[in-house]
């Protein structure tokens, strides 16, 4: 491991420095199964009558944000909540299709809290914290109870119990689902709880409003500066604590499965105000997406991983075979996942399934335009189960696929290819979900805390709701109870400085009047990242991208064209501010990928692979969280990962 305070100019055009180690001091000692109960008991409480005097800002209204806002308001806090959509119901959580994990063991198939904990640590390629992951597994069962009580219409089996199915990386059926609409149904449950508090006055909701910066005063997060996306008005909102529930940064790649509005501005602005950014290179590729069709696309479409339960993935055995799939006999089909990973078959983890698809396509066996696709075939399932049963489980997904591709998946196999989907990296937080800026809490995909180098399917909804419903309300209580708050004057220099910087930045974007559109810069950045920091990375490619990004960023600030004015609805201005942040984040992402000279999970360095082409970790040098501090040159702090219960081994799914 590098010495502290060491310059590394050779590794980065601007150089970086290795700083002092960082540690999670919030996690209690003792048996892992007792740590969350220990922390809950140790946490100080706030008298319900006193909570009314405290304002809490929550940015984001997806599963993490809506559950947090509703729960904090139910506790008695005055919550001020923001979303850039016109309604909290339109948060990107609605796009989650396949399910939510929980260790209830309804199937009596050997599942347990410990097995969910084990599968998650292993699935993340041993780059996550044991304490956080065990708590997530422990809380998972409570999430299902909460959702059922809210009326979430989970699928049920014949005896009336909730039904479950398998997802990648596991050999039990622990995934609860509502057809292919699980995220939407869970969000409606959280939204109705939030709506109850909006109506009661506990939550002050600000839709169509985007956070543009964080206010830090006396070393604490005390508010945000936001812009009304309809009128363009810039305003400041102050509170005793700030919660970011703003999702991931996958759209830095331009084309991803994320909604086009999903962006990283909130966490990136917080990073520039002092919050460490952890593991930015840990980005997830989802193996089951509709292949891209051209430059006209604004996003890619996810087909639920649940389809891999009954669909079989294959390619022709002959390179360049352009026959229709129905004309290719069984003997000339390669069910490559079943062949390579007989124990897990089509349900290997996402990183492994994605790389396997890339490998067969790179070798010339891909199908569809450009050979960038593999078949996901339901012929066997239709013959075994019958069409009505398949429609009951996957009907809305099949309908969505047909509307987008004009191909009927009941008649011909789906064509799928990997795409950017989720980001395991995010702002560094401790066991309490608090960042390195006191009073700034980060929940859901916006933080890095639970998934390591790869997220198992159906665990995003689990983490978001665990953080919002159960973890944050305990740990934020403790922060508020420890007190020391004084009213912050809106005229305070710490507030005015942030306001003026936000206004100046918007004015600068509008004043450039260049020749290139915002989208053209975003597409170029996305191509650069996908080519050099996508499913596989090399030192040469990462250095090439690192050399190009500063130049692209300079071109952006010299030649971007943002029409319109600031004091009005101006979506080009919104996009420009976000792409400006992406152009900075991309450089840190590339640098983190270059520094991590190993392969693990979704981070695959071609120089570090086994003879079988699997990821080859270097536990001796890289069993750490990379926590980056913003500065003229980035500062890398290491959080050493200790494994006392799940000992790192070479991942095997054969």
Automatic annotation (TrEMBL):
<keyword id="KW-0560">Oxidoreductase</keyword>
<feature type="region of interest" description="Disordered">
    <location>
        <begin position="1"/>
        <end position="27"/>
    </location>
</feature>
<dbReference type="GO" id="GO:0005886">
    <property type="term" value="C:plasma membrane"/>
</dbReference>
<dbReference type="InterPro" id="IPR011280">
    <property type="entry name" value="Succ_DH/Fum_Rdt_flav_su"/>
</dbReference>
<feature type="domain" description="Fumarate reductase/succinate dehydrogenase flavoprotein-like C-terminal">
    <location>
        <begin position="522"/>
        <end position="653"/>
    </location>
</feature>
<dbReference type="GO" id="GO:0009061">
    <property type="term" value="P:anaerobic respiration"/>
</dbReference>
<dbReference type="GO" id="GO:0050660">
    <property type="term" value="F:flavin adenine dinucleotide binding"/>
</dbReference>
<keyword id="KW-1003">Cell membrane</keyword>
<feature type="compositionally biased region" description="Basic and acidic residues">
    <location>
        <begin position="1"/>
        <end position="12"/>
    </location>
</feature>
<keyword id="KW-0813">Transport</keyword>
<dbReference type="GO" id="GO:0033765">
    <property type="term" value="F:steroid dehydrogenase activity, acting on the CH-CH group of donors"/>
</dbReference>
<protein>
    <recommendedName>
        <fullName>succinate dehydrogenase</fullName>
        <ecNumber>1.3.5.1</ecNumber>
    </recommendedName>
</protein>
<feature type="domain" description="FAD-dependent oxidoreductase 2 FAD-binding">
    <location>
        <begin position="56"/>
        <end position="461"/>
    </location>
</feature>
<keyword id="KW-0274">FAD</keyword>
<dbReference type="Pfam" id="PF00890">
    <property type="entry name" value="FAD_binding_2"/>
</dbReference>
<keyword id="KW-0285">Flavoprotein</keyword>
<dbReference type="InterPro" id="IPR030664">
    <property type="entry name" value="SdhA/FrdA/AprA"/>
</dbReference>
<dbReference type="InterPro" id="IPR037099">
    <property type="entry name" value="Fum_R/Succ_DH_flav-like_C_sf"/>
</dbReference>
<dbReference type="Pfam" id="PF02910">
    <property type="entry name" value="Succ_DH_flav_C"/>
</dbReference>
<keyword id="KW-0472">Membrane</keyword>
<dbReference type="InterPro" id="IPR027477">
    <property type="entry name" value="Succ_DH/fumarate_Rdtase_cat_sf"/>
</dbReference>
<dbReference type="InterPro" id="IPR003953">
    <property type="entry name" value="FAD-dep_OxRdtase_2_FAD-bd"/>
</dbReference>
<comment type="similarity">
    <text>Belongs to the FAD-dependent oxidoreductase 2 family. FRD/SDH subfamily.</text>
</comment>
<dbReference type="GO" id="GO:0009055">
    <property type="term" value="F:electron transfer activity"/>
</dbReference>
<dbReference type="InterPro" id="IPR015939">
    <property type="entry name" value="Fum_Rdtase/Succ_DH_flav-like_C"/>
</dbReference>
<dbReference type="GO" id="GO:0008177">
    <property type="term" value="F:succinate dehydrogenase (quinone) activity"/>
</dbReference>
<keyword id="KW-0249">Electron transport</keyword>
<feature type="active site" description="Proton acceptor">
    <location>
        <position position="350"/>
    </location>
</feature>
<dbReference type="InterPro" id="IPR036188">
    <property type="entry name" value="FAD/NAD-bd_sf"/>
</dbReference>
């Amino acid at each position: 491991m590098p010495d502290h305070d060491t310059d590394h100019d050779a590794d980065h055009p601007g150089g970086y420095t290795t700083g002092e180690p960082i540690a999670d001091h919030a996690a209690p000692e003792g048996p892992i199964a007792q740590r969350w109960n220990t922390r809950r008991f140790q946490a100080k409480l706030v008298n319900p009558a006193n909570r009314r005097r405290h304002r809490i800002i929550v940015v984001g209204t997806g599963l993490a944000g809506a559950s947090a806002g509703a729960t904090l308001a139910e506790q008695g806090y005055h919550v001020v909540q923001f979303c850039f959509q016109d309604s909290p119901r339109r948060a990107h959580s609605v796009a989650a299709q396949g399910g939510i994990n929980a260790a209830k063991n309804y199937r009596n198939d050997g599942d347990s809290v410990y097995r969910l904990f084990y599968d998650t640590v292993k699935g993340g390629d041993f780059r996550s914290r044991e304490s956080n992951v065990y708590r997530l597994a422990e809380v998972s069962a409570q999430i299902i109870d909460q959702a059922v009580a809210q009326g979430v219409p989970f699928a049920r089996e014949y005896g009336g119990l909730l039904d479950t199915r398998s997802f990648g990386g596991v050999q039990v059926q622990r995934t609860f689902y509502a057809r292919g609409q699980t995220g939407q149904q869970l969000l409606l449950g959280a939204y109705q709880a939030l709506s109850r508090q909006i109506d009661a006055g506990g939550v002050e909701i600000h839709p169509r409003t985007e956070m543009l910066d964080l206010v830090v005063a006396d070393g604490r997060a005390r508010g945000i500066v936001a812009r009304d996306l309809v009128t363009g008005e810039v305003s400041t909102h102050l509170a005793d604590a700030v919660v970011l529930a703003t999702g991931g940064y996958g759209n830095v790649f331009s084309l991803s499965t994320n909604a086009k509005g999903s962006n990283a501005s909130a966490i990136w602005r917080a990073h520039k105000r002092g919050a460490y950014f952890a593991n930015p290179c840990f980005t997830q590729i989802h193996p089951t997406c509709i292949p891209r069709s051209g430059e006209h696309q604004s996003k890619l479409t996810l087909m639920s991983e649940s389809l891999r339960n009954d669909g079989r993935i294959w390619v022709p055995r002959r390179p360049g075979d352009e026959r229709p799939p129905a004309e290719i006999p069984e003997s000339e089909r390669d069910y490559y996942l079943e062949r390579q990973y007989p124990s897990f078959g089509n349900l290997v983890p996402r990183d492994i399934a994605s790389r396997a698809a890339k490998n067969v396509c790179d070798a010339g066996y891909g199908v569809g335009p450009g050979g960038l696709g593999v078949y996901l075939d339901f012929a066997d399932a239709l013959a075994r189960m019958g069409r009505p049963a398949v429609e009951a489980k996957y009907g809305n997904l099949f309908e969505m696929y047909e509307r987008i591709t004009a191909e009927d998946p009941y008649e011909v196999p789906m064509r799928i290819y990997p795409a950017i989907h989720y980001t395991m990296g995010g702002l560094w937080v401790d066991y309490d979900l608090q960042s390195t800026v006191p009073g700034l809490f980060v929940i859901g995909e916006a933080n890095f805390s639970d998934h390591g180098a790869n997220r198992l399917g159906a665990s995003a909804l689990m983490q978001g709701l665990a953080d919002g419903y159960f973890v944050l309300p305990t740990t934020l209580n403790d922060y508020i109870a420890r007190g020391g708050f004084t009213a912050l004057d809106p005229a305070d220099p710490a507030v005015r400085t942030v306001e003026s910087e936000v206004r100046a930045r918007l004015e600068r974007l509008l004043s450039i009047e260049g020749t290139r559109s915002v989208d053209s810069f975003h597409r170029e950045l996305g191509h650069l990242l996908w080519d050099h920091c996508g499913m596989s990375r090399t030192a040469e490619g990462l250095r090439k991208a690192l050399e190009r990004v500063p130049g692209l960023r300079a071109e952006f600030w010299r030649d971007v064209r943002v029409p319109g004015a600031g004091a009005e609805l101006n979506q080009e201005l919104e996009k420009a501010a976000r792409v400006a942040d992406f152009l900075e984040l991309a450089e840190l992402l590339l640098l983190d990928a270059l520094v991590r000279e190993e392969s693990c999970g979704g981070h695959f360095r071609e120089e570090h692979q086994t003879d079988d082409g699997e990821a080859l970790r270097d536990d001796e040098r890289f069993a750490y969280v990379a926590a980056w501090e913003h500065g003229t040159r980035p500062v890398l702090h290491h959080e050493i990962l200790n494994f006392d219960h799940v000992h790192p081994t070479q991942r095997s799914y054969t």
